[in-house]
Design brief:
The chain is mostly beta strands. It has two helices and 23 strands.
Length: 246
């Protein structure tokens, strides 16, 4: 069907409106902000660490098996989780100390295993091992994943930096194509309202403008948990999350 000038105008208006809505986060002064805190727990059967056989570069990577505890539980508290407020458009400034991401490939493992960085910023990979690595990163979108970059690092002490810009997902999976037992994660924040939970599962997100928000808890291998919260000026709101095993 041929579009009339009116339909074209409406289409353009919708495009402009959508683009404006998707504008980048705006840092402003927050007056009388509140906070959100709580705890992330795990109930049910703990699946235990996943075991990978080390079959390559054993003089550097070690011998036997590599255990990776994706679901790390301590006295009921679940760690390696990021709690965040979803689609916040403006508020406090980002934490400059967590702006960029960095991983060191050392002993054929990623250090750190999990980290937080900001969207549309640089991620650096260092190879501290005297063996070849190939860092391969993916945007995580539910059960799907899309390659972000895939770079060979054959030389010790080599370093590469790539910009990470996620469109649909909120996190990045990190793997090594040379060693299938190397795994890591980076949560890629689109606003500064996030918290990497402590070992006991506790978290706090502060300096939040008063209002109603969607709040989510992300974990690299478990299904995300969702909720809502209303933050009052100068007050704390409590939101707890429970992940469940089989």
């Amino acid at each position: 069907m041929k579009k009339t000038p009116l339909i074209l105008a409406l289409s353009l208006g919708l495009t402009v409106g959508t683009s404006a809505y998707a504008a980048k986060y705006q840092a402003v002064e927050v007056s009388g902000g509140g906070s959100v805190s709580g705890k992330v727990t795990f109930t049910g059967d703990d699946p235990g660490p996943k075991i990978f056989a080390i079959t390559k570069d054993q003089e550097v990577c070690g011998k036997g098996n590599r255990e990776i505890d994706y679901v790390k539980v301590s006295n009921g508290g679940l760690s390696n989780v990021v709690v965040y407020l979803d689609k916040v458009k403006k508020g406090k400034a980002f934490d400059a100390a967590q702006e960029t991401g960095k991983v060191d490939q050392k002993g054929c493992a990623f250090e750190p295993f999990i980290q937080v960085m900001h969207n549309d910023k640089g991620f650096t990979a260092v190879n501290s091992d005297p063996v070849s690595h190939n860092i391969h990163t993916y945007e995580m979108m539910g059960r799907a994943k899309k390659t972000l970059f895939n770079v060979s690092q054959p030389d010790k002490d080599s370093s590469i930096t790539k910009k990470v810009k996620l469109k649909r997902g909120v996190a990045m999976k990190i793997e090594c194509d040379q060693h299938d037992f190397m795994h890591g994660f980076a949560f890629v924040a689109k606003s500064p309202y996030y918290a990497l939970v402590a070992e006991d599962g506790s978290y706090t997100i502060d300096n939040v403008p008063a209002g109603k928000y969607k709040i989510k808890a992300w974990h690299g291998t478990l299904k995300d948990q969702k909720g809502s919260v209303e933050v009052a000026a100068g007050a704390n709101s409590e939101v707890n999350f429970e992940f469940k095993g089989k």
